[in-house]
Design a protein that fits this description.
The protein is α+β, with helices and mostly antiparallel strands and about 160 residues long. It is built from 3 helices and 10 strands, in the order αβααβββββββββ. The two termini are about 40 Å apart.
Length: about 160
């Protein structure tokens, strides 16, 4: 009886902890991605010919097809790590917080967490980006749909990247 308790108690504790972890939390690896270069070309094609290469280069640099995303959701906040970049830390409850990208550009960043989705928003004077993470009904796939808006762009840039566990 004692041996059974020694086995059952840790198993129940592990199951309880696993049940508490939000389904979006964890490491996800890319399974496929939209043609981001084509989406960028479609976005900038209406721009003046002398602005187009500048916008295209900047958008390509800032919108890679991420290979891995790690999401950590706690009652204190949300952390999103893309590839080998530093995690982006955001307070819980959708409150915006300052964040500085690796290149020194400053943003206000916020996260809204739902049952099967996470909406991450970056804003500054140049525009805004929204990362919409949506969990599949079976919990085995995650889709990131990114939308970039700027007064400098004739229309928003939108593309998706799909991930699996």
């Amino acid at each position: 009886m004692r041996a059974a308790r020694l086995f059952i108690v840790p198993v129940l504790a592990a199951l309880s902890l696993a049940a508490q972890e939000p389904p979006l939390s964890g490491a996800w690896t890319q399974t496929k991605a939209d043609d981001i270069a084509a989406a960028i070309d479609a976005t900038v094609k209406e721009m003046a010919f002398y602005k187009r290469p500048i916008a295209r280069g900047r958008l390509r640099k800032l919108n890679p097809a991420y290979r891995k995303v790690t999401i950590t959701i706690t009652d204190k906040g949300v952390a999103v790590k893309l590839d080998d970049r530093a995690p982006i830390l955001m307070p819980a409850g959708g409150k915006a917080a300052p964040w500085t990208r690796e290149d020194g550009e400053k943003f206000m960043v916020a996260a809204q967490v739902g049952k099967d989705q996470l909406v991450q928003t970056f804003k500054n004077e140049d525009g805004e980006r929204t990362n919409f993470f949506k969990l599949s009904p079976d919990g085995k796939a995650l889709t990131l749909t990114a939308t970039v808006k700027s007064p400098q762009l004739p229309k928003p840039l939108t593309y998706s990247i799909h991930f699996g566990r």
